[in-house]
Every structure is written in C-alpha cells, then in structure tokens.
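A.,

Following up on our hallway conversation. Structure tokens first:
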C-alpha cells in the first residue's frame, strides 16, 4: 500500500514537472516564431531562423537568470533597489556577449557587424525590458497562486466549521427525539411505529444529504414537517401546531438544517413552561430567489428571555447565526423578538 502511495506521489510530481516545462517550451516557441515572422526574409529562411535563435536564446538566458537567481537572492531577500542594480548589471554583462555572438554570426558582413557594435545600447535596453517583464509576470503569477491558495484554505476552513456546527445540531436533535420515542414506548403508544418511520427518514436525510453545502428546499421542508409531526405526537392536544408553506417551491436550494434550531427552540424553551394550551405557528413563503420564514411560539409570561438566560438554547442560536453568516454573508436577515407571551423569529434569505 505504501509503495502504491509513493508511486502515485511520484507520478503526480513528474506530471507537474512535465506540465511546467511544456508550458515554458510552448511560450518560447511562440516567442521565437513571433520574431521569425516579423523578420526580413531577404537573406533566406535558414539565415533568419539562425539569427532569431541567437536573439531569443539570449532573452531566455536573462529571463531564467532573473527568475532562478536574481529574484530569490535579491528581490526576496535584499529589497527592490539591490535587485534592480543586480538586474542592470546582468543586462550590462550579457550585452557585449550577445553583441559578440551576432558579430561572429555576421562574419562575412562587416557593415552589419558595425551596426551591432553601435547598437549595444538598444541590445541592453531590450534585454533589460524583457527581464523586467518576466519579473512582472512572476509577481502577478505568485500573487494569483497565493490568492488561490488563500481561497482554498478559506474554503476548507468554511467546510470544517460548517461540519462542526452541523455536528452540534444533529446529536442534540437525535437525543431529544429518542427521549420522545422512549416515553411513548413506555406508554405502549400506537404512535411509536410512526415515530420510528419518520425518525428513520429524518436520519437518512441528515446522514446522506446534509453533507452538501446546499440541499433542495423541498427536502428541507419535508424534514421540518417530519419534525413537527413527531412533536405533534409527543405534545398531543395541549399544543396547537400550525405549519403553512406557500409560494414557489421547485428547484431552489438552501443551506441544510437552518430552520430546525428555531423550531426546536419553540418546544425546548417556549412551551415547556406553559401552564395552559400553547401554540406554534410557522409560515414559510418562498419565491424563486427569496425566502421568508416566520416562527411564532407562545411562552409563559414568567419565562426568562434568552438574553438573560444564555444556558437555555443560547448555543443553538449562536450556531445558527454563525452558519447563516458563513453561508449567506450579507444576503440574510434574522430578527428575533421576545415578548412577554410570544417569541417571534423572522428569517429572510436571498437564495442562490
């Protein structure tokens, strides 16, 4: 197994190296052809090919000296001024060498030899500009690489945090539901088999479909209905549960398990201290691009507000706020109002 893994790593490294070198070869080939096509063909194509091979060869030489030596040693370690001085010195040193190469190439043409000797300033400037251009490309390429790396790290961090937040929701809900099922089995209630079926459907949804960043809105609503059905069985007639869904519900997608903390809080914190009959009203209105959810539950007048009792459900609301921020950024609005007899949650989402 370890040998296979080492082979895979080796093959990926070789593939990466080959891809990198092939890109360089293609670039210089295109660069070379550009100079060939723009050169005069009076002296024959073979002469032009040889001449531009010398020209482009020296350009490539100063570019790779710059990329492999000058930038790491001077620009990265010693600063811009020393790097520019080193680059100018390199261009000055290569200028007479390139001039000599052309001088020898035109050995049978003294006029052209004199031309290259007189135009050493132009050779120097062209070499320097090509080197500076390679520096700009290197800086932009490195910046783009670091941006991609940063985005990848942010994406991984986002996924890890979302998975952690979802893991805090799922076991909590499962614990409550199993308690409900246990209570009904003790009473030998006929509702127990129905709870098992609905619970299995909900668990399948949580285990196999909630791992995606977005889920179908219709499935999230079905999950919510199953949860309310389970609570309706457990609560009996002492709580009036009303769930209304309207609008367009087709192929919209939503972050998974966003609704359930608000609905769960209705039963966990709002209704548990009720003396008389309680109620839970949920209205969901969806369009193709927007969604509004309103959750209203009754509560005892003496029930402390969540702001003053952070142990009762505070973590769940903090988690869902964090998930909304991570998923939707500025494209959501959450308004929670705590009245003496009612607790109201209004959630607005701008769908993808």
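Then the amino acids I'd put at each of the 352 positions:
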């Amino acid at each position: 197994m370890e040998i296979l893994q080492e082979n895979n790593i080796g093959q990926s490294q070789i593939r990466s190296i080959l891809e990198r070198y092939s890109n360089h070869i293609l670039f210089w080939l295109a660069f070379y052809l550009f100079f060939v096509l723009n050169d005069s063909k009076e002296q024959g194509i073979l002469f032009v090919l040889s001449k531009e091979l010398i020209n482009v060869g020296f350009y490539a030489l100063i570019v790779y000296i710059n990329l492999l030596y000058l930038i790491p040693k001077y620009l990265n370690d010693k600063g811009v001024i020393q790097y520019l001085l080193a680059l100018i010195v390199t261009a000055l040193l290569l200028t007479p060498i390139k001039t000599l190469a052309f001088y020898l190439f035109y050995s049978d043409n003294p006029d052209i030899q004199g031309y290259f000797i007189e135009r050493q300033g132009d050779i120097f400037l062209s070499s320097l500009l090509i080197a500076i251009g390679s520096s700009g490309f290197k800086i932009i390429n490195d910046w783009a690489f670091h941006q991609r790396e940063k985005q990848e790290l942010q994406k991984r961090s986002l996924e890890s945090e979302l998975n952690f937040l979802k893991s805090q929701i799922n076991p909590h809900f499962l614990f409550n539901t199993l308690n409900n099922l246990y209570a009904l089995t003790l009473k030998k209630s006929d509702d127990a088999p129905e709870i098992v079926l609905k619970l299995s459907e909900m668990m399948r949804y949580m285990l196999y479909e909630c791992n995606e960043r977005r889920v179908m809105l219709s499935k999230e609503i079905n999950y919510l209905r199953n949860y309310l059905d389970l609570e309706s069985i457990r609560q009996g007639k002492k709580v009036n549960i009303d769930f209304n869904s309207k609008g367009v519900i087709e192929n919209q997608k939503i972050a998974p398990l966003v609704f359930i903390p608000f609905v769960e809080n209705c039963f966990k914190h709002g209704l548990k201290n009720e003396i008389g009959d309680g109620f839970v009203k949920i209205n969901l209105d969806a369009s193709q691009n927007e969604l509004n959810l309103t959750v209203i539950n009754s509560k005892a007048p003496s029930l402390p507000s969540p702001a003053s009792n952070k142990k009762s459900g505070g973590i769940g609301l903090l988690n869902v706020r964090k998930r909304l921020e991570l998923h939707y950024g500025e494209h959501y609005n959450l308004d929670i109002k705590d009245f003496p007899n009612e607790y109201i949650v209004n959630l607005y989402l701008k769908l993808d």
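Residues 1-6, 303-313 have pLDDT under 50 and may be disordered. Curious whether your intuition agrees with the design.

B.
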